[in-house]
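Intended use. Records such as the N-acetylneuraminate lyase entry shown here are meant for training and evaluating sequence-to-structure methods. They are not intended to support clinical decisions.
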Amino acid sequence: MTKPECSKKEPTREKTKTKTDSPEKDSKLTNPATAKDLFSVFAPEESDNDEVDIEKRDDKKDENYEPACKKSKDNNSKRYIPKYKKEWENKPELKSWLSESIHGNTYFYCKFCKKDYRCGISDIHKHMSSKKHMLRATVPAFEAQKFKFRGLLCPVFTPFVNTRRVTPDINLEAIPKYARFLNACEVKGILVNDIIGEGMSLTIRERINVTDAWTDVCEKHNLFLMVQIGGAPLKDVIELAKHANTRDVGAVVILPDLYNKPQNHLDLIKYIKLIADFTKNVPILYHHHPKFTHVEVDITSFLLDIIGEVDSFVGVIYTTNDIQQSTAAMAVNRDKFTVFMGTDEAVLGAAASGFSCIMGVSLNFLPKLVQSIRESVTQGDIKGAQKSQNLLNRAIDVIGEQGDYIAAFKAATDVITGTCGNTTREPLQTLWEGTIKKMQGKLRELGVM
């Protein structure tokens, strides 16, 4: 049988195709190596004259391109192509944007430009000085300045009408009194509709109503408002994101999808990116609470890979007792990211480790005690800080023994401050009066009432 004419006409071209590594083929790897592989919008754009665009080069079949150490046709000598070195990422001028490419060690990836380029340290420095890169490199620095909050963040409870109904109505009239109490105690940050606020037990309309009510009182008392919009179907999360954007809240906080959980930090980046398209310029934080969400991701890798991908992303609320991991996350990029320590038992450790932002449920009922821990650390009074932390821990233990975590702390807040009521929604169990009185007695013995 006669061979097809195309084989006769272009034997050299076919041979070249089989020998040349195809980045296009590599990009179809089952397990993506970097965050950019998750999004089709990361397709390279037109590059500068000093930059090599992988996809553009493939289309033109550049005959001058040769893989590393490929033999020249004219002689048997090997042509050296510079290879990527991981150690380059530690250079101060490169650390924030340089990353290895999934297309092999003859390329590097720019997180700001979201593109791959031909490798070599001289190529990297040439790209860094290009106008296009410098223009994009200013975006993270600009966005980093948008989140100004520093201090104590209180995740507030959602007040319900005092009833034994399965789904009690929200008592929006209690919110102004709640806000006045926190403002008087010098708590300047408010987080609504989070785990403590039973956000996942509220309808979308109820979450919007709660946000509206808190927005009004926070403007009046000059409180910084953050709204948790996650933990719901994506369509509902997008609706909440749009609403938060219209109310000009200080920031939005995102919990992961609680059913279709992200399998790794790249999945989480993709999820946050979808939501960021609707929050516009509102700063975004991720609430890392593995005990509640059962989502375990490497937060350090997450923060490193999200740089340049979601410009409005500004930080993490770290609700674990692991000071070492949270401190490592805080060190990733202090100019870009804010890391909250979100565990009451770790207030002393967080303050001593340099955390400028702390979130704790105990700010609802013992705000002065939490503040005294921070102040003692600032003044160098470690013994005083330890004494206050021990008292706080004993109070938390007493409260936690009484029933469901949220129901118990909500009841404690009500008996100490009288601000939010003690009613919760099913399936959470509202504490019975006898249990509440027992808790009151133990708290009086500790001297916190």
